[in-house]
Design goal:
Layout (H helix, E strand, L loop, with lengths): L4 H4 L9 H25 L5 H13 L3 E2 H7 L7 H10 L3 E5 L7 E5 L1 H21 L5 H19 L1
Antiparallel strand pairs: 1-3, 2-3
Helix pairs in contact: 2-6
C-alpha cells in the first residue's frame, strides 16, 4: 500500500481539510510526473514546454499563430516568445510574420522536429504506461473524469 500524503511529506498533524489534502495530493503527484517526463525529454535536449509546443504544431499539421500555440499548452506558458526563441535556436521550428496581420507571428515544424518527435513517441508512451501501471484502466478513466470536473470548477 502506498504511503499517505501525510506520511510522505512527514507532516506531523492532520491536514486542515479534505480539500487541502486533495489539492496538495494533486500538486505533489503532478510534480512527480512532470519530473519523470522532464528527465526523459532532457536526454533529447528538450524541456516540457518545448516538447508541448512541438506536439501542438505536429497535431495541427501546419503553421499556427504563437498565441494560439500558447492557448493550447498543457501548462500555461506566459513566455511563449521565449519558448519559441529556444526552439528557433535548436533549429526545430520556423517563424514567420503573417501576411494577413503583421502583428501575428506564425510558427511551424521543421523536418528535424518531426524526426525528433517520432523518436520520442514510443518512449513517452512507455513512460505513461509505466507511471500509471499501478492504476487500473477503470480508475484511470475515473481520474480523467474527476480531473475534468476539477478543471471546470477551477475555471468557473
Amino acid at each position: 500500500m502506498a504511503p499517505s500524503l501525510q506520511n510522505e511529506l512527514k507532516k506531523r498533524g492532520p491536514f486542515a481539510s479534505v480539500e487541502q489534502e486533495a489539492t496538495l495530493a494533486i500538486m505533489r503527484t503532478s510534480d512527480l510526473l512532470e519530473n519523470r517526463l522532464a528527465r526523459l525529454l532532457r536526454e533529447h535536449g528538450l524541456t516540457l514546454s518545448q516538447y508541448n509546443v512541438l506536439r501542438i504544431l505536429r497535431g495541427e499539421g501546419g503553421p499556427l499563430p504563437c498565441l494560439e500555440v500558447a492557448d493550447r499548452m498543457i501548462q500555461v506558458a506566459p513566455a511563449i516568445t521565449r519558448v519559441v526563441d529556444q526552439l528557433l535556436k535548436l533549429d526545430l521550428i520556423v517563424k514567420s510574420q503573417s501576411a494577413a496581420d503583421k502583428r501575428v507571428y506564425m510558427v511551424d515544424l521543421k523536418p528535424a522536429a518531426k524526426r525528433l518527435l517520432g523518436k520520442l513517441d514510443e518512449p513517452i508512451l512507455d513512460m505513461h504506461r509505466a507511471l500509471l501501471r499501478g492504476v487500473s484502466k477503470a480508475d484511470q478513466k475515473s481520474l480523467i473524469r474527476i480531473l475534468e470536473n476539477l478543471r471546470t470548477a477551477v475555471d468557473a
